[in-house]
Amino acid sequence: MSTPTPETPSNQSHDNAKNDTEHTVDEHAATPLSTEPTAADEARAEHTQAEDDSANNIETDSIETEHIETDKIADETVPATDLSLINEQSTVRRYKTDNPSFFMQRGYQILLVLGLIAAFVLVMIYQTLFGRITQPQQLVTIEHGDTYYGLLPKWQNVPLFSASLAKLYIKSQVDAPLHAGVYQLPENPSLTSVLKVLEQGAKVAMVKVQVIEGKTSKDLYQTLRDAKGIKKEVLTKDADNASIAQALELDGILPNAVTNSQDYIVNHNLEGWFAPDTYYYGEGATDKQILTDLYKLQQKALTKAWENRAPNLPYKTPYEALIMASIIEKETSVAEERPLVSAVFNNRFKKGMRMQTDPTIIYGMGSGYEGNIRRKDIDEKTSYNTYQIDGLPPTPISLPSAASIEATLHPADSDVLYFVATGNGGHKFTNSLAGHNQAVKDYLSVMRQKKAQASAQ
Fold first, then answer.
1. DSSP summary character for residue 5
2. In the chain, how many domains are there?
3. Considering Cα of 432, then 383, then 241, then 299, what sign does the dihedral take?
4. 124 within some domain
5. How many CB atoms lie within 10 A of CB 174?
6. Regions of the chain short of the pLDDT cut 50
7. Where are any strands of DSSP class E within 237-358?
8. What is residue 31's predicted lDDT score, i.e. its pLDDT?
9. What is the pLDDT, as a whole number, of residue 261?
10. Are 330 and 369 spatial neighbours (Cβ–Cβ below 8 Å)?
């Protein structure tokens, strides 16, 4: 007996594989062959279930296949993207001119560079004006004609120092010219601190103090006494060697033989201790200030030369070297001859000879010297007459220059023992008594000729 097929709903337009499978299963299930299930029925049922499961799998695969095919159709309808164009755009950057981030980035870079330049310039300006040179507190003498620009080489070793910036600063800030004078510079000065000191010279009148090499301390004292505009604190009318040394607090630099001497010329004599040169001081400066400054300059020159002296010299102390320098200063004014004169006395000491130098006779005569040395003057024994005493005189006999101090401590390498004036400037140096005697004869001959020529005119 057959079971009627159910009618398909009118609103369903398509049947799918799933519906067909379900109809088939229903038809088999609706036709009973027996009231009791048999083994064949069970087997048929199991086979039917397997077919249903297979049908379901086929249906799912079919749906997925339809989706894949749909995607393929969609892909075929849209053109593929050219990957080369993507890569090209990623490697080449193109900025629009109105891109604000680009200009901000460039602006920051420019500001950074400008900032570094500005910082460098500021450091250079600071080092030029305030960078310090290493030197102790010292006196400096400015001569007429010296300029501020002449001071700039002192700062060349200061890092980032600029001479051009220094000149620009001087030109813009300093109105008055550099005045001649002696100025006390501070320790480790900067350019601005030195300019401040030097500018004070333009505000006061200056007094010239000229101290000539070879002159004596007595000459120096008289120069200061005569100088208008210099206050007298030390060089009073009744001042003597002892009062001057004590007022300047310099008596401690003298040997006991000098401070305790019964010879009025020797006692507390500060001869040789003041540096000869030309100085300028502001009106109102004191003689004590000037003498103290000149002492410090001389002491500095002597200390420097002594520390760098040649070996095997006969001088035991710097003071002995100062005495010899004062004698060399009196013997010659020719710079090239100073080391040779030094060698003469050095060689004489080594041979146990006396110095026998005329300037020592003159100094020991004091006010008794009238312009000529007589035989009795040579034979008279004084504290200074090196024809009559051994070794050095007790004190210097003049104010020696730094050049004479250097020559004393660096004599020429020579065996000369004598020297005498030539009559035409300079001296004749010899290493034997016979040669010296001949040089003396030549000198006397030249002097007779000059006297005859003068008489003929």
1. P
2. 1
3. positive
4. no
5. 14
6. 1-43, 45, 47-48, 50, 53-78, 81, 83-86, 88-89
7. 277-282
8. 41
9. 95
10. no
